[in-house]
Design brief:
Length: 250
């Protein structure tokens, strides 16, 4: 997680059945961080309705039991949203094998070892600004070096697949867990997404641009048949290496 504090204007939704807890949390967080705006919800459905209606919420903080659904059901509903906010879950030892593990690919979930409201505020300030924006930018730079003219729909599919892969530390199943969310986003089939990505790879292998060959060399893919899965995870690895380099230079 970036050590740089988030800019002002963070919009946080605090969710708990405990009205007093919400009142105390929101008052403290808004007083201690200029520009942080809290929205309090006592039920999961109340928050989910706001998100489905396009309410701008950057992060959801689950503070405790909800009035209308259990934690697993709430997290599963969050994972089905197209525009997903960050999700902060208190880590009491149960969440790691419970709600946190139930998140689908493409979600940004953090477990908080919270002992005070000050700890919660610090974690909110340390949230990445927009992880998907960084991935989109990085992939776009790669496509430029590979000589692929933009916009290109297959590059869009690839970028979104990389976003899904980056949302999980575990290795995901390519078709079911990576391509399926991309297909749902575009209201098409997994086969159509896979076919588009394979056509993109074929074009890159035919053109053999300097940038593409350099990427393959750096990703240890020289002389290897590049599959959809290998390309997605090669881009994820290149992004992670780039971020480590940036952190050392900063």
């Amino acid at each position: 997680m970036s050590r740089k504090q988030r800019p002002r204007g963070l919009r946080a939704a605090l969710v708990s059945y405990d009205e007093r807890q919400l009142r105390v949390w929101s008052r403290y967080l808004e007083e201690q961080s200029a520009g942080l705006v809290c929205r309090c919800c006592q039920s999961g459905e109340e928050l989910l309705t706001l998100l489905r209606q396009g309410e701008q919420i950057d992060v959801v903080v689950l503070g405790g039991t909800l009035a209308d659904m259990d934690e697993l059901a709430f997290v599963e509903q969050i994972s089905r949203l197209h525009a997903k906010p960050f999700l902060l879950l208190p880590d009491d030892g149960r969440h790691r094998a419970g709600a946190g593990a139930s998140l689908g690919p493409g979600n940004a979930c953090y477990l908080i070892r919270q002992t005070s409201l000050r700890d919660l505020l610090r974690r909110l300030q340390e949230l990445p600004n927009d992880p998907e924006e960084r991935i989109v930018q990085f992939c776009g730079e790669c496509y430029d070096r590979w000589g692929v003219a933009q916009p290109d729909v297959n590059c869009t599919y690839l970028t979104q697949a990389v976003c899904v892969a980056c949302g999980s530390e575990a290795k995901l199943a390519i078709r079911k867990e990576i391509l399926q969310p991309v297909a749902e986003r575009h209201e098409t089939t997994i086969a159509a997404i896979d076919s588009g990505l394979r056509r993109l790879i074929e074009c890159l292998e035919v053109r053999r641009s300097v940038g593409w060959l350099a990427f393959k060399r750096d990703a240890n893919l020289s002389g290897v048949r590049v599959s959809t899965g290998k390309l997605i995870y090669a881009l994820k690895g290149a992004l992670e290496r780039s971020e480590k380099l940036d952190s050392r230079l900063s």
